[in-house]
Amino acid sequence: MIRIQPPGEALYDEMLLADGQCRPHYAPFWHWLKETDDKYIQHKREEADLLFHRVGITFNVYGEEDGAERLIPFDNVPRIIPAAEWRMLDKGIRQRVKALNAFLHDIYHDQRILKEKVIPAEQVLANDQYQPCMQGITLHRRTYAHITGVDLIRNQDGHYYVLEDNLRTPSGVSYMLENRKMMMRLYPELFSRQRISPVERYPSLLLQTLKESTPVENPCVVVLTPGRFNSAYFEHSFLAQQMGVELVENADLFVKDGHVFMRTTAGPQQVDVIYRRIDDAYLDPLAFRPDSMLGVPGLLSVYRAGGVVLANAVGTGVADDKSIYPYVPEMIRFYLAEEPILNNVPTWQCRRPAELSHVLANLAELVVKEVHGAGGYGMLIGPCASRAEIAAFAERIKARPDNYIAQPTLSLSTCPTFVASGVAPRHIDLRPFVLTGRETRLIPGGLTRVALTEGSLVVNSSQGGGTKDTWVLEDYPC
Questions:
Q1: How confident is the model at residue 310, as a pLDDT?
Q2: Which residues form the Circularly permuted ATP-grasp type domain (predicted)?
Q3: Residue 177 in 3-state DSSP?
């Protein structure tokens, strides 16, 4: 029998109630789990690791001396979301992404939101991610973020909150797809017990979205990668293969006569849409960093003239900067005249003197993040930090207060996870993926990341986190 540890006190567990009983939408899985031998589960976990290694689902951790590729740990217990709950999330996510795209078009055109002082102008125009070269450039369908990842957490109150928006080069969707494929292969009996929304249409919907980003008929689409040493290279090659398009590096592309061309064995082929997985600063050494060995010289001039589409657009990073995050609810009210369906996490901006004082006085209770940080780096989790770490971080904040925001330490819901001692609760988040083309499309579910260390709130793979399959039920089980 599998030993199942009950959820912690004052925590919201996705599967179990406080008294140890399972939630209704988990009932079929719960009954299967109680009937299943732990040796069978362990065998399946080992089989999953072997299969993931064969497929090559690995990632690189920057800064590791050995440069070894790692396997992202995969957990066999799925995160299950009831149909009604997903409908609410779906509606709230669509609303948020629509407002973010409206914001991006506005700040590169009329700047109404700045003129009406909804957001301080200097916080946008002086932001490192704001690209003046995009001013006055009108994009097809006014879409800047074609692919968006919205990070959600559920607090101990049972409500969902948006933790951050990812509009530059959001990653992780390949793990969502491979996790589902793995679960269906290992446990086909589970999928016969309830109706689970499929996720395998994502690559075809992504290709459709990319084709809809340009008025060109039958456009040539490519995926631009920095190369095999990038931490997400598996995903770049995976998505290109799944969409049936070319995976290219900078050396494969060149600019001529106002267009971008791809070198092929049959001669140059014009490229119409580039799904780029390279940050703005490295895209074009003639326009951004002259030392970039990853970009295509002249690419920006072609892009500005409408000769090629970049997905996501240049300059989208300003909208997912953590210093802009606190204003997203106001964006929704300003552009859509609606109340936000999904709430932000309460946030203090250290650039404001009064809020800075509050943060410095309460560092031991807060989570502090760099506004440009990602991957779990450059942050302080007060309750888990030593006095020395808190003191050192306070000095960093004082030196650059505009570089930090702070938030309360949320509990993050837990989900049962296989560990050495059996099944125990571990903290999780959720990243649904949004595609914006002629219409907005969401694949039901997303990538559930799990903090495998007991008590840890950091789910990032670079910090030792793992992933789970995410099931959205099409209806409740009978």
A1: 98
A2: 78-451
A3: helix
Q: Residue 386: exposed, middle, or buried by beta-carbon count in 10 A (0-12, 13-18, 19+)?
A: exposed
Phi and psi of 41, rounded to 5°?
-65, -45
**Structure tokens belonging to residue 303:** 């892009």
SS3 433: strand
CA distance 14 to 16: 6
CB atoms within 10 A of CB 11: 16
Mean pLDDT, 10 residues at a time, the chain of 478 residues: 80 92 94 88 88 74 54 90 97 98 98 97 95 97 98 94 95 95 94 93 98 98 95 94 98 98 97 98 97 97 98 97 96 98 96 96 95 75 93 96 93 91 92 97 96 87 85 73
pLDDT of residue 136: 97
Q: H-type helices in 38-194, by residue range?
A: 38-55, 83-107, 112-115, 121-125, 173-186, 188-191
Q: CA dist 42 to 2, 186, 426, Å?
A: 10, 12, 18
Q: Which amino acid is at 326?
A: P
pLDDT at 51: 87
DSSP 295-339: S-TTHHHHHHTTSSEEESPTTTHHHHSTTTGGGHHHHIIIII---
Quote the radius of gyration of the chain (alpha carbons, Å).
23
* Residue 475 near residue 83 (C-beta atoms within 8 A): yes
Give the pLDDT of residue 68: 55
Fold of 346-408: Dna Ligase; domain 1 (3.30.1490)
DSSP string, 454-471: TT-----GGGT-EEEEEE
User: CB 184: neighbour CB atoms within 10 A?
Assistant: 15
473 forms bridges with which residues in the sheet? 196
The single-letter DSSP state of residue 14 is: S
**Measured between alpha carbons, how far is 422 from 2 in angstroms, rounded to an integer?**
6
455 phi, psi to nearest 5 deg: 85, -10
DSSP assignment string, 27-45: HHHHHHHHHS-HHHHHHHH
Q: What CA–CA distance (Å, rounded) separates 434 from 432?
A: 7
Q: Please, are residues 336 and 324 in contact by the beta-carbon 8 Å criterion?
A: no
CA quadruple 327, 332, 334, 338: dihedral sign = negative
Q: How far apart are the first and last CA of the chain?
A: 26
Q: Which are the contacts of 9, defined by CB distance < 8 A and separation ≥ 6?
A: 18
Q: Which two tokens stand for residue 323?
A: 């210093």
Nearest to 305 by CA among 252, 260, 248: 260
Rounded Cα distance, 290 and 300, in Å: 13
Q: In the chain, which segments carry CATH 3.30.1490.270?
A: 346-408
